[in-house]
């Protein structure tokens, strides 16, 4: 049986009330539409935007073009969820207007009504986004990207754009976009980090409307193979109780597997400037297909998690991957965790615990297993960290081969199915994991993707695949007994 996650809002909250039971997901009509991952109702989607939590709902806005399966004039699509797995689609939130397309950005709850757009009794949900003026771009102007805001007083269901947009003019910079805004209580002000060509600019505001530039970061740090995009800035505490600031920055091109990817920096922030602890280049995900990810705003303090989702694709081939009625999905939602290791502080990623309830059984096996589910998770320990393999195959001879040989971890999708749509897709990715000892692996398989979590999130590898038929066999070498859990039926 095939499944689909496009369900009614009432069903979303019914699912949330059954945390300890496995959850059934309704049927899907699409060959490529995944079961556990967010997808648009139809047509084109890219970056997650405006992720905010309010009154029991996780809001996910996203770059959306409702008229084609390839990129076009950007809107903000909108969906809500009680658990970040089952989603209810809502009407498009933001449409292009005479100031331009609606590019990426963020959303916040203005609890203190600093903007004056609501009241303290009814605080506004405020979206902060980039206006992209295609006419200005065509005319050769440098100031064709500016920052605007919109607000909602009904839990994000309807939106009104601010009457005096833009709230942040462009000083004459070709790439000036993707504002991520947070209220930072210790500084008593709003902080915006903005992607500016190949670095980050930091702004502050008392009211979300009037912005002051504070500083720049990164012109000579990190990876610089392409344009910087979709930044984020937040605090995490490691297992020793040390608190550090983390900055996420996506880059395109210049990723370690070609095309786009997300890097991160760890350091300190004083409300004006960010300083990194070292000059290391760190990647949030070591696969090819996790880009433009940011974290949810306004997660309740009682929860305390830093929750993340990324766009599960790569600009190198995103517009030509096989598709039927839609293109692209988001990654599984993940919790970002700061871990102090022998290499210093690192950001690890683990699947959120809410996913667990979508699997209803566990089956142990040794070396191989026939499978029938289109989505499942398999977990195991390795017996030799430098010499093991896992492969997934089907009756057509399509195969995904994952190996570790002498410290080099590889993900080979050269024979995984449809690969000839772009010359850089059907390749073997080799990743140097010699600085860690691989002990455990958890792999989520969902129709057209594999997400590999090594050592409880110490390393993550996210990769797309497009088999003509589902993989129906797993073969393991060099691992201890594995556990297979199919999606609930």
Q: What is the strand and helix layout of this fold?
A:
Layout: H1 9-16, E1 43-54, E2 57-65, E3 75-81, E4 87-94, E5 101-109, E6 125-132, H2 134-138, E7 145-152, E8 160-161, E9 176-184, E10 189-196, E11 199-205, E12 211-217, E13 227-237, E14 243-252, E15 261-269, E16 274-276, E17 282-283, E18 291-295, E19 306-311, E20 326-327, E21 334-341, E22 344-351, E23 363-365, E24 368-370, E25 375-381, E26 387-393, E27 399-405, E28 408-415, E29 428-432, E30 440-446, E31 449-454, E32 459-464, E33 473-477, E34 482-486
Parallel strand pairs: 1-20
Antiparallel strand pairs: 1-2, 2-3, 3-4, 5-6, 6-7, 7-8, 9-10, 10-11, 11-12, 13-14, 14-15, 15-16, 15-17, 18-19, 19-21, 21-22, 23-34, 24-33, 25-30, 25-34, 26-27, 26-33, 27-28, 28-29, 30-31, 31-32
Structure characterization notes:
By secondary structure, this protein is mainly beta. Helix content is 3%, strand content 46%. It has two helices and 34 strands. Strands 23-34-25-30-31-32 form a six-stranded antiparallel beta sheet, with no helix packed on it. Strands 24-33-26-27-28-29 form a six-stranded antiparallel beta sheet, with no helix packed on it. Strand 27 and strand 28 (408-415) form a beta hairpin. It starts with 8 loop residues before the first helix and ends with a strand.
Name the quaternary structure: single chain
**Cα-atom Rg, whole angstroms?**
22 Å
**In terms of structural class, how would the helical and strand content be classed?**
mainly beta
> What ranges have pLDDT less than 50 throughout 5 or more consecutive residues?
1-27
- What is the terminal separation in angstroms? 7 Å
Average of pLDDT: 93
Helix content: under 10%
The proportion of residues in beta strands is over 45%
- Note the main sheet: 6 strands, antiparallel
Please report the total strand number as a whole number: 34
> How do the strands of the widest beta sheet line up side by side?
23-34-25-30-31-32
Shape: globular
- DSSP summary: helix tally: 2
């Amino acid at each position: 049986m095939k499944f689909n996650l496009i369900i009614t809002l009432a069903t979303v909250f019914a699912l949330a009330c059954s945390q300890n039971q496995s959850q059934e997901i309704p049927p899907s009509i699409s060959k490529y539409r995944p079961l556990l991952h967010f997808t648009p109702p139809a047509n084109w989607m890219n970056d997650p935007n405006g992720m905010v939590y309010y009154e029991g709902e996780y809001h996910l806005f996203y770059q959306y073009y409702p008229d084609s399966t390839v990129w076009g004039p950007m809107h903000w699509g909108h969906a809500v969820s009680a658990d970040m797995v089952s989603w209810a689609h809502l009407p498009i939130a933001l449409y292009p207007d005479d100031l331009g397309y609606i590019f990426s950005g963020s959303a916040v709850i203005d609890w203190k009504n600093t903007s004056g757009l609501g009241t303290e009794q009814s605080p506004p949900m405020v979206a902060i986004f980039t206006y992209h003026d295609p006419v200005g771009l065509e005319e050769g102007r440098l100031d064709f990207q500016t920052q605007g805001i919109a607000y909602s007083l009904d839990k994000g269901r309807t939106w009104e754009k601010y009457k005096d947009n833009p709230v942040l003019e462009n000083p004459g910079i070709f790439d000036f976009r993707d504002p991520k805004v947070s209220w930072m209580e210790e500084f008593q002000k709003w902080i915006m980090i903005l992607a500016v060509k190949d670095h980050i600019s930091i702004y502050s505001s008392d009211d979300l409307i009037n912005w002051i530039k504070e500083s720049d970061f990164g012109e000579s740090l990190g990876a610089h193979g392409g344009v910087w995009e979709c930044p984020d800035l937040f605090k995490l505490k490691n297992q020793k109780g040390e608190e550090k600031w983390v900055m996420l920055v996506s880059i395109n091109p210049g990723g370690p597997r070609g095309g786009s990817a997300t890097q991160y920096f760890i350091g300190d922030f004083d409300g004006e400037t960010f300083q990194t602890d070292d000059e290391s280049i760190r990647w949030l995900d070591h696969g090819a297909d996790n880009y433009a990810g940011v974290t949810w705003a306004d997660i309740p303090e009682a929860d305390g998690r830093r929750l993340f989702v990324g766009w599960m694709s790569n600009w190198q081939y995103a517009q030509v991957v096989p598709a039927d009625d839609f293109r692209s999905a988001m990654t599984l939602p993940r919790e970002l965790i700061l871990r102090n290791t022998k290499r210093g502080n690192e950001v690890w990623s683990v699947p959120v615990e809410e996913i667990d309830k979508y699997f209803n059984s566990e089956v142990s096996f040794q070396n191989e297993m026939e499978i029938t589910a289109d989505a499942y998770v398999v977990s195991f320990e390795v017996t030799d960290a430098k010499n093991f393999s896992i492969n997934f195959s089907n009756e057509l001879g399509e195969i995904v081969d994952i190996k570790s040989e002498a410290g080099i971890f590889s993900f080979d999708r050269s024979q995984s199915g449809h690969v000839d749509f772009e010359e850089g897709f059907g390749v073997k990715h080799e990743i140097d994991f010699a600085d860690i000892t691989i002990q455990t692996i958890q792999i989520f398989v969902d129709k057209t993707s594999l997400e590999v979590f090594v050592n409880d999130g110490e390393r993550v590898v996210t990769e797309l695949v497009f088999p003509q038929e589902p993989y129906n066999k797993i073969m393991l070498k060099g691992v201890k007994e594995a556990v297979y859990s199919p999606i609930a039926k």
